[in-house]
Amino acid sequence: MIESPEEKYRRLQDEVQRAILRGYPNPHRQGCPDDAVVRDLAMNPEKIQAEDETNEKSAWNHVTHCSPCYARFLELRAAGRRGR
Ligand SMILES: [Zn+2]
Fold first, then answer.
1. pLDDT of residue 5
2. How far apart are CA 38 and CA 76, in angstroms?
3. Burial class of residue 62 in the structure, from the number of CB atoms within 10 Å of its CB (0-12 exposed, 13-18 middle, 19+ buried)
4. CA of 19 to the centre of ligand 1 (A)
5. Is the Cα dihedral 66, 71, 76, 82 positive or negative?
6. DSSP states of 35-78 as a string?
7. Contact between residue 38 and residue 72 where contact means Cβ atoms under 8 Å apart
8. Radius of gyration over alpha carbons of the chain, in Å?
C-alpha cells in the first residue's frame, strides 16, 4: 500500500507522539508546570515559539520532555478542538 504525503505526515506525527508518551515517565511530576500552563499551550499553539523547543526553561520544552504533561497536552488539545 502506498501512503499519501498526508498519511505519512500523520504516521510520523503519531510515532513522535508515542515516543514522547513512552520516553519520559515522570511519576513524581518533577518540574511540571501548572495545569493552566499546559492548557494555554494546548489552546494557543500559535504562542509556541520555535526556540521554545530547545529552551530548557520554557514550558513547551518541558511538555515535550515529560510523558504525563504531554498526555495532558494532547487531551486538552483534543478537547479544545471538539469545543470550537
Ligand atoms: Zn511534566
1. 95
2. 8
3. buried
4. 15
5. positive
6. HHHHHHHHH-GGG--GGGGT-TTSHHHHHTT-HHHHHHHHHHHH
7. yes
8. 14
Measured in Å, residue 80 CA sits from the centre of ligand 1 at 20
CA of 25 to the centre of ligand 1 (A): 9
pTM, two decimals, is 0.85
pLDDT tens digits, 1-44: 789 999 999 999 999 999 999 999 999 999 999 999 999 999 99
62-71 residue pLDDT tens: 999 999 999 9
- For the record, the C-alpha cell of 39 comes out as 492548557
